[in-house]
Amino acid sequence: xxxxxxxxxxxxxxxxxxxxxxxxxxxxAGFEYQLASIEDLHDYVAGTGEVFTYKVxxxxxxxxxxxxINNFPDxxxxxxxxxxxxx
Length: 87
Hints:
Strand content: 35-45%
Largest sheet: 6 strands, mixed
Radius of gyration: 15 Å
């Protein structure tokens, strides 16, 4: 049996308008940083269409992208959001 380690990355927001959401290894001197919130991640998805599919550490705790489809007789209800999996 093999085990897979899934890395958790810290994600930050910055006052740099050119790149307002960054990872720890992308930080540059001269900018203010704070740990991103779940709301910040949702804003990022809404603005870019990009989703981080791995675990990310946020202000609320470790979060992961979640998708769910609830099938109803007339339509499907899609739930797509970041959820805290470990606080």
